Amino acid sequence: MIRRFVMLMFVLSYGVAVHAEDLKPQMNVKYGPHERNVMDFYPAKSDKPTPVVLYIHGGGWRGGDKKTNPKPFLDRGITVIAINYRYVQNGVAENVVPPVKAPLGDAARALQFIRSKADEWNLDKKKIGATGGSAGACTSLWLAFHDDMADPNSDDPISHESTRLYCAAVNGAQVSLDPKELREWMPNYRYGAHAFGLPNFQALIDNRQDVLPWIHEYSPIELVSKDDPPIALFYRGEVPVVGSSPKDPTHSGVMGVKLAEKLESTGVEVLLVTPGVENPEFKNSTEYLIDRLTR
């Protein structure tokens, strides 16, 4: 009788304990109101809260999907959560200004939602690392460098959660939306005008002064500060040469070189792996995240 009473008091005080073996993958979990505000949850089996890899897909903020292979992380006790988010064209349709605020804001909301599920999903709220390629990489870096967007005064408890990351490891990341510095780095650069609802890169150049506040708000390199988490940058293609015109400027390691310079000068830990780098400590973002999240 006494034992039953003690167990009842424990449940009332602390809730029912999570059994990791009972957690199953969940597809298309809603984290927001839009039809693309869904995530796939792949739980790692563990008796203690697990680190998390947040996967943000690429596609220029105009396409792509959250489908991914979680197995390398699950095998190492790391939960994977992959998200969809609104495209910039959804932002245009909803009068989101600038349109890029839609995908980036959704990623921040997804991160807060994940933290709000930490007890239910057996997650370590502190150890969340983001990854992705191209636009997903840019979004990951934006989250990594942005000041905490938690709102403790909100009526929505999910908004109370932090948006800060433990680390990020990304592939082919865009690091700036500033046409002036991008053209200085690579004279043939031409990507990013759609982020601000402009028809082409020349329009972005012509209207740079008008959208400069948005450039400062949504370019990851503009947000770097000394309290930012460790970052790993992976690029393929040509050996990066600042001032050159690479075949694929949108994903060129030139951007990684410039961001790494900024991070190093600010005192943020950074690993840059590009063609020409011999014997890197980590060959890809998966290796880096596994090492960082399981230390």
TrEMBL record:
GO terms, molecular function:
triacylglycerol lipase activity
Question: Which SUPFAM superfamilies does this chain map to?
Answer: alpha/beta-Hydrolases
Start and end residues of each BD-FAE-like domain: 41-235
Quote the InterPro entries the UniProt record gives.
AB_hydrolase_fold, BD-FAE-like_dom, GDXG_lipolytic_enzyme
Per the UniProt entry, the signal peptide is 1-20
UniProt lists the family membership as follows: Belongs to the 'GDXG' lipolytic enzyme family.
What is the protein name given in its UniProt record? Answer: Acetyl esterase
